[in-house]
Amino acid sequence: MAGWKKRLAWGAISVAVIIIVAVVVGGVVVRQRLSNSLPVETGSLAVAGLGAPVTIDRDHLGVPTIVAGSRADAARVLGFVHAQDRFFQMDLQRRQAAGELSALVGARALEIDRASRLHRFRHISQQALAQTSPGYRAILDAYAAGVNAGLSALAAAPIEYLMLRVDPEPWKAEDTILTILTMFNTLQGRQPQFEATFGTLADTMPPAMYDFLTARGSEWDAPISGGTFARPSIPTADVFDLRKDLRGTEAQNRRNFIRDNSREFRAAAVPWLVRLSDDEAAGLGSNNWAVSGTHTATGAALVANDMHLAISVPNIWYRASMQMPDPRAPGQTLTLTGVTLPGLPSLIVGSNGHVAWGFTNTGGDWSDLVIIEPDPRRTDHYLTPSGPRAIEVFDEPISTTAGAEPFKAHWTIWGPIVRRDHQGRDLAQRWVAHDAAVLASDITAPETARTLDEVLAVAAGLGIPAQNFVAGDTTGRVGWTIAGAIPKRVGFDGSRPMSWADGSRRWDGYVTGDAFPRVVDPAAGRLWTANSPVVEGNMLATVGEGGYADGIRARVIRDRLMAIAKATPADMLSVQLDDSALFHERWRTLLLSTLNATAVQGHDQRAEFRRLVDTTWTGKAEPRSVAYRLVRTFRQAVFRDVFTAITSPAKRVDRDFDYGRANRAEGPLWQLITDRPAHLLHPRYQSWDAQLLASVDTSIAELETLGGPLADRTWGEFNRAIVTHPLGGALPVVHRWFNMPSDPLPGDVFTPRAHSPRAGPSERMVVSPGREHEGILHMPTGQSGHPWSPHYADQHRAWVDGTPLPFLPGPSVARLTLTP
Predict the structure, then answer these.
(1) What local confidence, expressed as pLDDT, does residue 112 receive?
(2) How confident is the model at residue 729, as a pLDDT?
(3) CA-CA distance, 511 to 345, in Å (whole number)?
(4) What are phi and psi of 224, to 5 degrees?
(5) Comparing C-alpha atoms, which of 746, 728, 747 is closest to residue 793?
(6) Which residues pair with 725 in a beta bridge?
(7) Sign of the C-alpha dihedral, residues 432, 435, 437, 440?
(8) Residue 639: left if φ>0, alpha if ψ -120 to 50, beta else—which one?
(9) What is the pLDDT of residue 15?
(10) DSSP of 624-665, one letter per residue?
(11) Under 8 Å CB-to-CB from 482, ≥6 apart: which residues?
């Protein structure tokens, strides 16, 4: 018996030793594999296709300076460093546009892939590539070859492929156009929802009420051309009387509305795609401005830019500087510095030493929903200006790790059928992103511009998601235009779905020449954009309405800029970091007046709510502020309660209707609670005061569900960074190595410092062309997408704290030479 026990003990020890050895050996193998997937930063490597040796100098943050003998060589080497540092990011971007994520990660991505396959973007990117100019095609081909060379130069595939147990697929030139199409989807993908919202309102509300709820503009707007926009009057009771309209369905409508408009964040269906709340998504878009030399300390123009996007690990942008012979000045060097997008061979925003430029999303209208009229004689046909046509059906099987899933895309002459409205009508989407000829344009064109006029001219019509393009040059001049293609609409304004069957409504190509919106050298010497209307009149009509933001950020920026006599880069960063709570000041005043002595008598929680709002307000959306969070929660509750009732006719016919998608609701909301029309008050309330008080109680109830006293409900408790790697949640044991810290963040989507948990400034840049050494540039996370790299998160703290980092890369700490 004793012998048996001894043998059993030795057996257990042997097994334990084997397990330990296996774990150690496995750990060593994994560690070696991870080390092998780090980029090559020193020494010399041969890269086929180079015309001459190219050096890559990296500074202490891993930011590369590429010195090349030609633009094609610079593109090839930019592709090389993008692949070495960020290939998995590039892979996800091209797959997202093409609807090919499931082939990488399995059926969990099918919902995303189906939505993308409707648009057949892989096919469109191939068409666009075939139409590119020879010079641009050479750059695209060189970049793709450089990406594949960089991937091959890694001793092991990037860490994500080890985790997914798949091999990366080579980069194709068409994948660069797919990357651009991913940005189209990011920046314009909500437009069909926006237009459908307007369509349902138009179908269910009297015209005057529709105009009131959808009119662009409020007192917050601050366009650079013109004044604020006049709001329409509130319709009278004979037009729309809420007390008569409600028919007992308001309780369910309210539950649906609150569910759909909840400020709480929904979990992502796919872990690497950042899903934003409606509030955050409405805040995507960015700030930028330019100050003419007359109003700067140096006499040179200053350009500032902070692009607000979903923030993940790694950051979307990649800092870089590229030096090459200047094609317009033999013997001189052209230097491009700023941020690039892995997947593209071009400088996105930055400076070329002659001009500097920045982007913000426009809020203009770049797609339209077309009501499809079926042919009454043949159900698979529809009416067009040239007669009935058959619906084209394309087989688009979606590959998954377990096989192929069948999928069919239904297309019309205007574009794919993307949704069905509340009347059961099919809606097709006409979108700039479907136009291969537009996508074929050379996105590197701004890089060689010498003057403001040149850069504004080449920006017009670029094959990118239409952007507010703000620029300044070395002479101190500044200007604004739209970078992108602007549809020329005939017979309609594009605000809601229409039938195009008889030909009276259509797109007639794109806007060109003098009709293209442009503002150059304004008298004030300052330009600013923040996703609200930038201009008025004919120029605004040309840009259209595609979901503008409320103008609060633009107004704060304008007022700050006007107060600075001689601007410096530090002044511009201060404006970017502005977290003043101006937007909510009047809501605080309203809240305090609502919680008067009578309202709080006998209600301890109301009294505490009022005390906190009264005594802890700092005038800023800062992490420690309790009052800011309470006031903001109150405004959201008022919004839900008021518009749940008023838009109930739309909600009754369309369960998915969401007035929050209209974005700019502050104008009508403030009018209603200021004028307090009895006919637009829900009959459950005796007065508007009673309705506002009910919103206070709702706010208290929502905040109490979090546990603890109201005094613990700081803004920073809610506005805490959720900056994660696409696979950071896949392996809980190692997530802390993949994700960024959960820092409390100052700012809000209603302040220039537009932080929210999952979105915010993806970079902050300030630069004068020709004086780049004085500029500022920082971004979240770091250059590398590899969690073992020292550059995975070494820029993140400066971004969280708002600490300036130099625009130009620092001294070289590592040099790699690539030879032909």
Answers:
(1) 95
(2) 65
(3) 27
(4) -75, -15
(5) 728
(6) none
(7) positive
(8) alpha
(9) 44
(10) T-HHHHHHHHHHHHHHHHHHHHHTHHHHHH-TT--GGGG---
(11) 362, 364, 459, 460, 466, 467, 468, 469, 516, 517, 543
Of 764, 777, 774, give the one whose Cα is nearest residue 298.
Answer: 774
Q: pLDDT tens, 591-631?
A: 999 999 999 999 999 999 999 999 999 999 999 999 999 99
Cis-peptide, bond into residue 206, ω within 30° of zero: no
**In angstroms, rounded to a whole number, what is the distance separating the alpha carbons of residues 623 and 658?**
30
Written as six digits, the tokens of 109 are 């991505």
Dihedral of alpha carbons 31, 33, 39, 45, sign: positive
Rounded to whole angstroms, the Cα distance separating 446 from 468 reads: 14
Other C-beta atoms closer than 10 Å to the C-beta of 103 total 18
Q: In what helix (H) or strand (E) does residue 181 lie, and over which residues does it extend?
A: helix 173-188
**HSE (CB half, 13 Å, CA atoms) of 77?**
33
Residues with pLDDT less than 50, the chain: 7-9, 11-12, 14-29, 248-272
Token pair belonging to 735: 């997530």
Give CA separation, 707 vs 43, 258, 704, 716, in Å.
Answer: 57, 21, 5, 16
Residue 108 DSSP SS3: helix
pLDDT for the residue 260: 38
DSSP string, 280-296: HHHHTT-EEEEE-GGGB
Distance of CA 696 to the CA centre of its chain: 32
Q: Is 145 exposed, middle or buried (0-12, 13-18, 19+ CB in 10 A)?
A: buried
Which pair of structure tokens corresponds to residue 674?
């200021």
pLDDT of residue 168: 97
Contact of 335 with 604, CB cutoff 8 Å? no
The rounded distance, in Å, linking the Cα atoms of 559 and 569 is: 17
Q: Return d(Cα 385, Cα 150) in angstroms, integer.
A: 51
Q: Which of these, 750, 775, 769, lies nearest to 572 by C-alpha position? A: 775
Residue type at position 136: Y
Torsion of the alpha carbons at 508, 510, 514 and 518, rounded to the nearest 10: 140
Nearest partner of 121 among 205, 209, 185, judged by Cα: 185
Q: What is the pLDDT of residue 22?
A: 38
Q: Give the chain's radius of gyration (CA, Å).
A: 28
Residue 26 CB coordination number (10 Å): 10
Name residue 817's beta-bridge partners: 44, 55
514: CB partners within 8 A, 6+ apart: none
Write the burial class of residue 676 (CB in 10 Å: 0-12 exposed, 13-18 middle, 19+ buried).
middle
pLDDT score, position 18 = 41
Cα–Cα distance measured from residue 768 to residue 757, given in angstroms and rounded to the nearest whole number: 31
- Tokens found for residue 619: 């005038």
Please tell me the distance from the alpha carbon of residue 711 to that of residue 15, in angstroms, as a whole number: 56
Side chain identity at residue 123, one-letter code: H
How high is the pLDDT of residue 763? 97
Bridge partner residues of 443 (DSSP): none
Given CA atoms 253, 254, 255, 257 in this order, what sign does their dihedral have?
positive
Write the CA distances from 548 to 188, 205, 529, integer angstroms.
Answer: 12, 22, 11
Alpha helices in 348-449 (DSSP H): 436-439
Whole-angstrom distance, CA of residue 363 vs CA of residue 188: 9
Closest to 771 (Cα-Cα) out of 565, 521, 474, 470: 474
Q: Return the structure tokens found at 784.
A: 């590398």
CA 110 to chain centre: 22
Tokens 């502005």 identify what position?
Answer: 578
Residue 335 tokens, joined: 């230097």
Query: Could you tell me the two tokens for 692?
Result: 């506002």
**pLDDT of amino acid 280:** 54
Burial class (CB in 10 A: 0-12, 13-18, 19+), 694: middle
Q: What is the structure's pLDDT at 735?
A: 67
* Alpha carbons 795 and 809: distance in angstroms, whole number: 13
End-to-end CA distance of the chain: 74
